[in-house]
Amino acid sequence: MAVKQISIFVENKEGKLVTITDSIAKANVDIRAMSVADTQDFGIFRLIVTEPEKALEALQSSGCFVSITKVVGVSIPDEPGSLAKIVKILARHNINIEYMYAFITVSKKYASVVLRVADNEAAEKILVENGVKLLEEKDIADM
Amino acid sequence: MRMPKKYFQQEAETMPVEEIKKIQDEKLVKQVKYVYDNVKYYRDLMDKKGVKPEDIKSTADLHKLPFLKKDDLREAYPYGLLATDLNKCVRIHSTSGTTGKRVVAFYTQNDIDMWEECTARALVAAGATEEDVVQVCYGYGLFTGGSGIHGGSHKVGCLTLPMSSGNTDRQIQFMMDLNSTILCCTPSYAAYLGENLKEKGYKPEDNKLKAGIFGAEPWTEEMRRDIEKALGIKAYDIYGLTEISGPGVAFECEEQKGMHINEDHFIAEIIDPDTGEVLPEGTKGELVFTSLDKEAFPLIRYRTRDICILSREKCSCGRTFVRMTKPMGRSDDMMIIRGVNVFPSQIETVLLNCGYAPNYQIILDRVNNSDTFDINVEMGTEDFSDTPKEITKREKKLQDAMKAMLGINPKVHLLAPKSIPRSEGKAVRLIDNRKRYGITI
Fold this sequence. Notes:
- Chain A has 143 residues and is of the alpha+beta class.
- Chain A has helices at 16-26, 52-61, 82-92, 120-129, 137-142; strands at residues 3-11, 31-38, 42-49, 65-77, 97-104, 110-117, 133-134.
- Chain A contains 5 helices and 7 strands.
- In chain A, strand 2 and strand 3 form a beta hairpin.
């Protein structure tokens, strides 16, 4: 069920971002969401894209240190309190969130949230049991 | 006030060159026989070369004897080169080896006394008398720096402050409150202390220091001038190595033109590092030492890998011992970082032990007269992580393993696979930016 995230290790060096964005553009892949975690020396780029495999191949062939990370994607109503609700569900079940980020789609009715947890299946099961709608690969492509 | 003594052991330090030669001839014959009889490792080397103790009649025969290399010391670890009963030994010191195995040197009480007399000579050459306060901020412990100078300072009768390295605030407090007159440490630490004193608002004339004895790492004439100015002192160089005893194998006099080798205890030769052939005086080559008086760990023709030049030109200080230049380079790949000997092979060993391929690059530089030490390491494709926390954790783990092996702390940076530039398929292992400052080792 999990969603595929493209994770890229990027040294803090000139031109690295150009390489990444260029190769994704050339592969004709659309970026839906993006998040960056950085330290003084390097950053990790995390992307949700329309065609992860195609993006992975393009990035690898341009020499990027890249991998696909399975993450949990959920769709929540774009209204106050929605995010709090899912965070509470996970907290109640002692599921630790490594990192998360969210994005909204054109329709504006729903927001999408990407969650990185240790055990995707366990998190997904609990979220579904609590009536949360999960995102699938095709949902992202169709957005 | 009495006139300060100019020499610690005048008779030895100023004897005519012919006299030095005679003493060396006599001691060498005895020492070679002693080693042959007591050290199987070296006896085997001599037998293999077909040399018997009887073949060595004077220093003119020295070239017939086999060399000892750092690899031999590692192979013979720990007791293989010990020439005396362990009961007669009173101490060990140790230095890092090439692939993690350390070199352990043993000392009898006589060995310690001889060594401390050598450092006492260095202290007196720098002007030490029993009225002086000697602040020793070389590390104490397995490293020979601290205890070697410490013992010499006792022999001269100086008040000795066994500070050891680090804790700069305390160093400065004791220096100012106890009126230290002679400072002993690495040149980079001396420069660092100078900057700290300045930051605290002290002027060079505010301290009571008159001299400093600095060694254990390469430094330049420019650094010497900086340190002398910053601390208001005269700065003296000192040379030594654990394998031969420790600091004080050679020391500088007031001329500051090379270091006098204590030739009544050690014979120095310069060889061609490639052929092993002995080179004439004044030629640049690898320095080789033979110890003449050591009981526990006597080394014959030990290759230091330090490149320098010897000169027997008359010195105005009155000492007749031959002088060596500062080491100008190495005939192996050893680096001296913050006064510690580091071999690339040690770094490779740590990488392999920690599950990394040996794809790395060492970057050395000098900031504010002290060394920076960075190691870039390529990750394997399986090492990918999508969280910086995990990568930082691995960097820390590798850094700790490096510290345990090398004794100093590098900054480890994990990089993406194949990100270290390769020339002709081979990665450049070392970028030593210290060369800009004239540091060549």
